[in-house]
Design brief:
Blueprint lengths: L1 H10 L25 E6 L1 H19 L4 E7 L3 H15 L8 E12 L2 E9 L11 E9 L3 H11 L5 E10 L11 E6 L4 E2 L15 E4 L1 H6 L3
Parallel strand pairs: 2-3, 2-5, 5-6, 6-7
Antiparallel strand pairs: 1-9, 3-4, 8-9
This protein binds 1-O-pyrophosphono-5-O-phosphono-alpha-D-ribofuranose and hypoxanthine.
Main location: cytoplasm
Family: Belongs to the purine/pyrimidine phosphoribosyltransferase family.
Protein name: Hypoxanthine phosphoribosyltransferase
Length: 223
């Protein structure tokens, strides 16, 4: 029992609410964003290390049969590319390798830092191709959980064989519906985060580290 609890605790990489993060000057941050960010909360290197381990856990659990990795655009694209690179590398070095195919869907629900009433689904008409398949949904962040719950109910109409969800981040917030993905990279405080493809009105996807957006950035890029 104790052993199991230790493993669960290890798997949950919790960034505490009082985590200060790191000074921007310790890292390379694009000049055009220097005034718009508070601190670096997850450096790129740490994202990569954690992603490598997530890939290992997923291949161990889901390996042995064809996996369709479904990328949730746009925020998921960088994590998706890095995760799949690690999964491909593992797949190249095991006896029972499995085909790994990819698919993409676009969902949109945020304007500024606010979740809108409707989750807009774009490009989801090919979900019927996932009937009977082992699907791994790859997402950047779960906050309220509404985007993922919308996608899961859409997908389930097409009767996939197995559906697992990996999200790089899960936010600890009162707004959460309680939904938890199968695999979580980091559990993060209730702050608006940008970088590594997480955006604020489309900006900051071109930032490698995950950072906390400041008031200046919020105002500058507000819609
Ligand atoms: O759990 P939720 O509160 O639903 O929030 C999570 C969603 O919000 C972001 O998407 P966004 O609508 O900003 O679109 P994007 O992926 O194009 O950035 C993010 O990429 C998730 O899909
Ligand atoms: O903190 C966030 N940052 C960027 N996109 C998001 N979508 C939900 N939460 C966030």
């Amino acid at each position: 029992m104790l052993k199991l609890m230790t493993r669960i605790l290890l798997w949950n990489f919790k960034i505490p609410d009082d985590e200060k993060g790191h000074d921007l000057n310790l890292f390379c941050v694009p000049k055009h964003y220097e005034e718009d960010l508070d601190r670096v909360i997850i450096p790129h290197g740490l994202i990569m290390d954690r992603t490598e381990r997530l890939a290992r856990n997923i291949v161990q659990d889901m390996g042995g049969c064809h996996i369709v990795a479904l990328c949730v655009l746009k925020g998921g694209y960088t994590f998706f590319a890095d995760l799949l690179d690690y999964m491909k590398a593992l797949n190249q070095n095991i006896d029972k390798s499995v085909p790994l195919t990819v698919d993409f869907i676009r969902l949109k629900s945020y304007c500024d830092d606010q979740s809108l009433v409707d989750v807009k689904v774009m490009g989801g008409d090919e979900l019927s191709a996932l009937t009977g398949k082992n699907v791994l949904i790859v997402e950047d962040i779960v906050e309220t959980g509404r985007t993922m719950q919308t996608l899961l109910s859409l997908l389930n109409k097409h009767n996939p064989k197995i559906v697992k969800v990996v999200s790089l981040l899960v936010k600890r917030t009162q707004k959460s519906s309680g939904y938890r993905p199968d695999y979580i990279g980091f559990e993060v405080p209730d702050k608006f985060l940008v970088g590594y493809a997480l955006d604020y009105n489309e900006y900051f996807r071109d930032l490698s580290h995950i950072c906390i957006l400041n008031e200046n950035g919020r105002e500058k890029y507000k819609k």
